[in-house]
Amino acid sequence: GGSMRRILACFFALATALGAQDLEPASLGIQGRLSLPEGSFRDALGGLKGPALGLSLYGQMDLGEGWRARVALGSDLWTKGGGLPGEDREIRAFHATVEAIYVLRDEGPHPVLGPYLVAGLGAYAWSLGADITGTGETRRVTHAAGTVGFGWRIARNLELEARFLGGRIDPSLTAAVVMGAVNLRF
């Protein structure tokens, strides 16, 4: 709907602004995630049996002095394991995010192996299954959510991250998710 168009318009405006910077060339990549919901988020799913899957496409560029910026578009899906047949107890999120990365061991303009911190803010379009909303209908809401994490570049094009996602979905439901991520850069 209209909110998704606004999210995409913001994402492309940010990507264009970052792309206009005349610094080190930007890199593209994909991020795969496994995540475990906590608290009321896990309860809404009726107890999750296994990790959820997520995937993002991102653009990242150096800003200098150890700082990098990343913009991403992605999606995650959490479903209840072992639910009743026909039960709609799943939560989906589509998101557009902007993240700041600080390399803890900066050695100039070339890619550095080692640790970094990452923090970001994004617009998350949530879709709550009919058996979660209690109304018998799927509910869609869009809210901001934040991420913080720690990463380690283990090879020129490979990074591992431990992340936490937090934000409000509706008055009775908070997104609290622990994530493990793998970034493959092109």
Give structural notes.
The structure is a single chain. The chain is of the alpha+beta class. 15% of the residues lie in helices and 59% in strands. It contains 3 helices and 8 strands. An 8-stranded antiparallel beta barrel has the order 1-2-3-4-5-6-7-8. The model has no long low-confidence stretch (mean pLDDT 83).
Quick summary:
The chain has helices spanning 2-19, 39-44, 130-133, and strands at residues 27-37, 52-64, 67-79, 90-103, 114-128, 139-155, 158-170, 173-185. With 186 residues, it is of the alpha+beta class.
Helix content: 10-25%
How far is the first residue's CA from the last residue's CA?
32 Å
Strand order of the largest sheet: 1-2-3-4-5-6-7-8
Enumerate the spans where pLDDT stays under 50 for 5 or more consecutive residues. Answer: none
Q: Tell me the fraction of residues in β-strands, as a range.
A: over 45%
Structural class: alpha+beta
Radius of gyration: 17 Å
The chain-level mean pLDDT equals: 83
State the shape.
globular
Features:
8 strands; eight-stranded antiparallel beta barrel; 59% strand; 186 residues; 3 helices; alpha+beta
Topology:
Blueprint: H1 2-19, E1 27-37, H2 39-44, E2 52-64, E3 67-79, E4 90-103, E5 114-128, H3 130-133, E6 139-155, E7 158-170, E8 173-185
